[in-house]
Design goal:
Blueprint: H1 10-23, H2 27-53, H3 57-65
């Protein structure tokens, strides 16, 4: 494990402590979870952009053309 020294304004540190308390975890665990969540979001975005860049619009159209045409279920309009 690595130790990271982080300098935060007092107001952010207070909010951080409050959020960790509300979540019922130590500040270190809360920060680690937040960092993991951000990494996951950025990684997912990159993955999706790469997949989209290799998409075949004609293949998508062929799949969508197989979907039967019918009115939406009431409430799904």
């Amino acid at each position: 494990m690595t130790t990271l020294n982080l300098t935060l304004p007092n107001s952010i540190q207070r909010h951080l402590q409050e959020m960790a308390d509300l979540d019922g975890v130590p500040v270190n665990q809360f920060v680690m979870s937040a960092v993991v969540e951000k990494i996951s979001a950025l990684t997912a975005e990159t993955y999706m952009r790469n997949r989209a860049a290799h998409a075949d619009p004609a293949a998508l159209r062929a799949i969508l053309d197989k979907v039967p045409q019918r009115p939406p279920v009431p409430g799904d309009e």
